Amino acid sequence: MSVQTWTYILVGISFTLYIGIAIWSRAGSTKEFYVAGGGVSPLANGMATAADWMSAASFISMAGIISFAGYDGSVYLMGWTGGYVLLALLLAPYLRKFGKFTVPDFIGDRYYSNTARIVAVICALLVSFTYVAGQMRGVGLVFSRFLEVDINTGVIIGMIIVLFYAVLGGMKGITYTQVAQYCVLIFAFMVPAIFISIQMTGNPIPQLGMGGTLNDGSGTFLLDKLDGLSTELGFNEYTDGSKSIVDVFAITLALMVGTAGLPHVIVRFFTVKRVKDARKSAGWALLLIAILYTTAPAVAVFARTNMINTVSNQPYADMPEWFSTWEKTALIKFNDKNGDGIIQYVADANLNELTVDRDIMVLANPEIANLPAWVIALVAAGSLAAALSTAAGLLLVISASVSHDLIKKIVKPDISEKGELWAARAAATVAVIIAGYFGIDPPGFVAAVVALAFGLAAASFFPAIVLGIFYKKMNKEGAITGMVVGILLMLFYMLKFKFGIFDGGKEAVAGLKEAWWFGISPEGFGTVAMLVNFIVSIVVMQFTPPPPKNVQDIVEDIRIPSGAAKAAEH
Amino acid sequence: MNDKQQKASAYWKENVSYLFILLTIWFAVSFGAGILFKEALDTIQIGGFKLGFWFAQQGSIYVFVILIFVYIKLMNKLDKKYGYDE
To answer: Which residue, A143, A164, A240, A262, is most buried by CB atoms nearer than 10 A?
Structure first.
């Protein structure tokens, strides 16, 4: 059977499964719609969190980025997992005890102010919308490459599926489809990784194969071989970086703190019954995420070595079939500059003849390694699972921000339960349409902004929530000023150094590198903005009145784990 | 301060000291071994891995997972000690 037939079969089966689960788990009340009724088991919640968290970026792009960046790619590995330690230790248990539906709920109540609530809603929408657009784009890419439909048709199919189970099932539907999606995506990621690990190193465990010796009888370590190949072609040693230590430090911290501050991840911990379940599901989530995140760097090494071996100094005419398939999508480009018919793949831009889009490494990897057709199709189904599960989680945050935080809490507090449920569904529908539009017609800045969404989350939510829990005397004036200053500073830095709008546009960006504050890139600046947020909050607090007694009592109460199920009732 | 409050603040103090210890380890394996001392650790090689590189791309993640499960265990014990478990 051909790759395409296999893809139709596997994608068809997995989509039927998701829709079936959605129908089985419809939401009947707002509590079911927002937090799945609050009775999800820790393991199920861990799986759902893992699927929610691992997006098209984790599944498709990350291993590719690492395979081109080598050691520099470590920022994503440590940043996107280390954040869970912060989440589990500093946020999840206390937010669960607080026991409402959304992050703006916490900010609004803890800082006894609707201004704080509105600031939090704006931050949540900003972060979630930039994120969701990237997911829809990923769905479109996979459809166009593997099912040979138009990219726009792909996006629309994805929209309909997400709309169906997010609008119908709310958090309840999303949770149980995400459990299924986790299984699909982890299976799809591991199978080719294991195959290739055996092929290259003889070791079935990719995490060990990565540090093992090559299968060719030479006794050379794979990583040494790759370091050698890289320097031979003029690249950095694979296991060495090119970024400064300060910048690597800042980016890693910004990604960690940003992860812990992402609203769609935080709300998942509202869906379990007790505080100890919230802790436990954070543990499960990270364990399940770590399976993919420790395999990805191995995949990166295998893919990089395989690719260099296949293309470097080989005649163009001898290239295998996958090479021309990807050439058609323009994601691989060959330009025979010296006209010798041989591919020169080197670091020097003037002599290099081959450009490979880093996003295709995971998708093309099974083809490069000559794996069977069903494995290639499985990767397609897995990428769709990763993109759809994250998109659904984000849409829920957007819809809850509108129907719960804005309509119920501010505009029309006397709205009926039924009315709120309809408002939530309507908001989700509108959000899907906007997200789909961005997916079909992406403004050039989407990809850049997705990476910066972490900076925004780090600069706004993380300090406000942590101070709200660990610093009883923190008041609304401090928290609001901190959030506003933090997010504006982050936006300013982004606009200045990522988009160059104060210095004549995109062309100026490369030249501004010298002017980076403290040598920190826009991706890492979330760390600075977060520190500024903390400092501003604490300073302003000194000069303004302390929070009222009943708010201080809330803080005392969320620090004690017992009674969470009861707290969720009111 | 009444008994109930005293108990609550003693519980909180122990909780915070656990956080302090666990987050120190969190910092040491990622920012320490994986970034600040990466070069020095790279002189040690275990199998095919240079140690600093291994911490950055593998080791830190394993430690993160262990840290959360240790935290779960410690807190469950602490909850029991103070009668906050349910």
So the answer is: A262
Pairwise CB contact (< 8 Å): B76 & A276: yes
A-chain residues within 8 Å CB-CB of B22?
85, 89
Q: Produce one character per residue of B18-39: b if its CB has 16 or more CB atoms within 10 Å, e if not.
A: ebeebeebbebbbbbbbbbebe
Tens of each residue's pLDDT in chain A, 570 residues: 788 889 889 988 998 898 888 888 877 788 888 888 888 899 999 999 999 999 888 888 889 889 999 999 999 999 999 999 999 999 999 999 998 888 999 999 999 999 999 989 988 888 888 788 777 777 777 777 777 777 788 888 888 888 887 887 888 888 999 999 999 999 999 999 999 999 999 999 999 999 999 988 888 999 999 999 999 998 889 999 888 999 999 999 999 999 998 889 999 998 898 999 999 999 999 999 999 999 999 999 999 998 898 888 899 988 888 888 888 877 788 988 888 889 999 988 888 999 888 778 888 888 888 888 898 889 888 988 888 888 888 888 888 888 888 888 888 889 898 899 899 889 989 988 888 888 777 665 555 666 678 888 899 999 999 999 999 999 999 999 999 999 999 989 988 888 788 887 777 777 788 889 999 998 899 999 999 999 999 999 999 999 999 999 999 999 999 887 665 444
Q: CA-based angle A257:A262:A265, to the nearest 5?
A: 115
Give residue limits of the domains in chain A.
3-567
Instruction: Say how many CB pairs under 8 Å bridge A and B.
Output: 132
Q: What's the gap in Å between the CA of B58 and the closest CA on chain A?
A: 6
Domain that holds residue B24: 3-82
Which of B65, B71, B77, B84 is the best residue to mutate to test the A interface, defined by the most A CB atoms within 10 Å of its own CB? B65
Facing residue for B68 by CB, picked from A66, A71, A286: A286
How many domains does chain B divide into?
A: 1
Q: Which helix (H) or strand (E) holds A333?
A: strand A332-334
For residue B64, give the nearest of A74, A213, A286 by CB distance: A286
Q: Are A400 and A97 in contact (CB under 8 A)?
A: no
Largest CA distance in chain B: 60
Contact criterion met (CB < 8 Å) for A89 and B62 = no
Measured in degrees and rounded to the nearest 5, phi and psi for residue A561 equal -70, -25
Q: Do B8 and A71 touch (CB under 8 A)?
A: no
A485-A490-A495 Cα angle (round to 5): 125
How far is Cα A86 from Cα A280, in angstroms, rounded to an integer? Answer: 14
